[in-house]
UniProtKB/TrEMBL annotation:
Principal localisation: cytoplasm
Record's protein name: tRNA(Ile)-lysidine synthase
Cell compartment(s), UniProt: Cytoplasm
UniProt GO MF annotations: ATP binding; tRNA(Ile)-lysidine synthase activity
Domain of life according to the entry: Bacteria
SMART domains, per database record: TilS_C
Function: Ligates lysine onto the cytidine present at position 34 of the AUA codon-specific tRNA(Ile) that contains the anticodon CAU, in an ATP-dependent manner. Cytidine is converted to lysidine, thus changing the amino acid specificity of the tRNA from methionine to isoleucine.
CC per GO annotation: cytoplasm
Organism expressing this protein natively: Pseudomonas rhodesiae
UniProt domain Lysidine-tRNA(Ile) synthetase C-terminal: residue ranges: 358-426
SUPFAM superfamilies, alphabetized: Adenine nucleotide alpha hydrolases-like, MesJ substrate recognition domain-like, PheT/TilS domain
Binding site for ATP: S27, G28, G29, L30, D31, S32
Gene that produces this protein: tilS
The protein's enzyme class: ligase
Keywords: ATP-binding, Cytoplasm, Ligase, Nucleotide-binding, tRNA processing
Amino acid sequence: MKPTLPAKLLQALAPWRDAPAWHIAFSGGLDSTVLLHLLATAKPLVPLSAVHIHHGLQAAADAWPSHCQSVCDYLGVPLRVMRVQVPSGASLERGARDARYHAFAQVIGAGEVMLTAQHREDQAETLLFRLLRGAGVRGLAAMPVHRPLAGGHLVRPLLGVSRAELEAYAVEHQLQWIADPSNADTRFSRNYLRHRVFPILTERWPQAVPGLARSAEHLSEAQGLLDELARMDLQAAEQPSAFPWLGLPSLALAPLRELSDARQRNALRHWLNPLTRLPDSDHWVGWQSLRDAKHDAQPLWSLADGQLHRCGERIWWLPSSWSEFSDVPVSWSDAQRPLQLPRNGELRFCGKAPAGPLEVRYRQGGEIVDVPGRGRRDLKRLLNESGLPGFVRGRLPLLYRGEFLVGVPNLAGLWAPPSQDWQLHWMPQTCDQGLS
């Protein structure tokens, strides 16, 4: 006997029954209406709520929050309505999706679950759409049943359910749902596939949709194996750097060089995936140029959301906002308290701060500093000796008293502090503090 739709749903959600809360992404359409009704009537022990995202893209959408509210009131489910701004760009679909998931990330707390109602036809459309765009295994794995989102989880429990099953359930229970007029607009790629391509495919191959969805499952399993291989290959490359205080992701280059080109790309895709949108096949020549550059070169590879830098035998990830800091001098009137540098972290003293009016400046070139036991030394040469990555040097805070350079943060491990009475510590702004 085939399991009922409620049984399928509860089985899919079994791994998440101990989550602190479940949130349903409730558009008011057929799919999310069925999901909401299934869960509200199942009365799970997990606290349940709904979230409606108002994109503001069409006049008809202004009436949808009130419809969603009435449905939630009837089912006894709390509803939160969130208005988002969809940025203008080449793809309205992508902009709306990004805005929607950004809002979801604001809703869920640690360990909580956001449930979305994509079904089997959605999965087949995603696979075909990405196949036409030339996606690799990761893209062709289509939509995962589960993925991390903010501090919680995004779960799609209906991916194994057909749209026909959802419609039958809705009719049986006399549910009312919103018919989004934009779903009929074939100018949008997914709608074109849904209304023009899939009817022809299923006329010739009736099992096209479940077949494509099954292929997506196989590709998802293959991607899981590639991820396991990547984690194994990255173990040796993830040895700590000489500058762990920088707080930037980095890898040792030598272990990567020992891998085949295909395994290098696989390991890097896995490592870069949470940091940036991944490059297409043609763009990977940038990795080869960075990897094969001369030892004393400092090449970089520009990606969608940042840059990969190579310094010596190490590669570093710098998010796009790394350069967004102010190099304007900053007065330090109360040196007993930490100094917050504009988008450049924090500077503080350990020990008694030196007397006099102090100011933080940034490198202009030609700086000289006193080094205990070595006398007056050229700062540039000292930085070269230290191996401090070149991309850090422009934002290294320098402490001045008048026109005299009295200190460089010893946290960089460059040399001994200028005095036994105090040390200058710099904690740069890290990716977790807003650089990514």
